[in-house]
Specification:
This protein is an alpha+beta fold. The chain contains 11 helices and 12 strands. Helix 8 crosses helix 9. The protein is elongated.
């Protein structure tokens, strides 16, 4: 009677394991196959008869022996299951899939679970591995990732100047309006610095537009490196830029502008065989309660910049209300 019960139990165990839509592999501690279900036979092309009793690494020489043996040793010591997602390791077994995706060697993406099977004394006697086909999930995730990447790229295109990689005019002007409205509401102080490169047309005419572009890139990068995380730099047009310096009064904005002007003046910009030196003129305007809107603040910074140029260039001028 006991033998019949064992046979029935074994039959149902095999039936259940074979009906699962995941791979089930049971190994002994020498890595010989004890259980090999239908999923594994179907996707590997290795039948149960050819797998059971064989060393797993003899059947699949491409398996990472060192990695798996470390997993198995960990299971024996900790006596708790271990899970490896397809995001961590795309696949364990090189099973083909029938979906149109790109991936590592085009194999089925797999989630793998490693489960220690304990004997009556609480020692690890066998190791069970389950293999779940995650290809459809991976495919969906790739589509989501592509959409996210596309949105990021669109955002970059929308908010940043393609050449200098600083904010473009649309974004920096919108940011200035927001900062202005915030100061109008809460009484915060901030300053606007407008600057452009002196005699930039001469640079283009003498060295060429590619050299001029290089000057714009290098100066932008230099200025960015001198700003705080709370400050913003934008290309306003051509060789003209604006800096929004938050929580900064006119006096400190002038000091910042002078440091930037000095640093740019010390640069030597190489473009091909050319060595180019550049200077900048700067205008500073501070937020005031009587300002009508951000456009008036822009106008005042522009007037201050104009006065810097009028007075000989390569200097900083603050706006003085009439």
């Amino acid at each position: 009677m006991e033998t019949i019960t064992q046979d029935i139990g074994e039959y149902f165990s095999k039936s259940i394991v074979d009906s699962l839509s995941v791979g089930v592999v049971v190994l002994d501690l020498t890595c010989r196959v004890v259980v090999w279900n239908s999923f594994m036979s179907k996707h590997s092309g290795v039948s149960r008869e050819d797998a059971v009793g064989k060393d797993l690494f003899d059947i699949f020489p491409y398996l990472s022996r060192n990695w798996l043996e470390m997993k198995f040793q960990s299971l024996q010591i900790l006596k708790s299951y271990s899970f490896v997602s397809w995001k961590q390791r795309p696949y364990l077994f090189k099973f083909q899939h029938n979906r149109q995706i790109t991936g590592e060697a085009g194999y089925m993406y797999q989630d793998c679970t490693f489960i220690p099977i304990l004997d009556t004394d609480g020692r690890t006697a066998l190791i069970c591995m389950t293999i779940q086909d995650m290809t459809e999930t991976a495919e969906s995730q790739k589509i989501v990732d592509e959409v996210i990447d596309a949105n990021k790229a669109l955002k970059l295109m929308t908010n940043y100047d393609a050449m200098t990689c600083v904010y473009n005019r649309g974004y920096i002007e919108k940011h200035l309006e927001q900062e202005f409205n915030k100061s109008k509401r809460y009484g915060n102080v901030f300053s606007l610095i407008m600057f452009d490169l002196d005699h930039f047309k001469k640079v283009n005419d003498t060295y060429g537009h590619l050299a001029g572009d290089e000057v714009l890139k290098r100066v932008s990068k230099k200025v960015c490196g001198m700003l705080r995380n709370t400050d913003s730099l934008g290309r306003y047009g051509g060789e003209e830029f604006i800096i929004i310096s938050t929580e900064t009064n006119e006096e400190n904005a002038v000091l910042l502008a002078d440091r930037i002007r000095d640093a740019v003046g010390l640069m030597t910009i190489t473009s091909g065989d050319c060595q180019i030196n550049a200077t900048i003129s700067m205008g500073v305007a501070e937020y005031r309660k009587d300002l009508k809107d951000y456009l008036q603040m822009l106008h005042e910074a522009d007037i201050a910049l104009y006065n810097s140029k009028k007075q000989g260039r390569n200097r900083v001028t603050k706006y003085t209300p009439i």
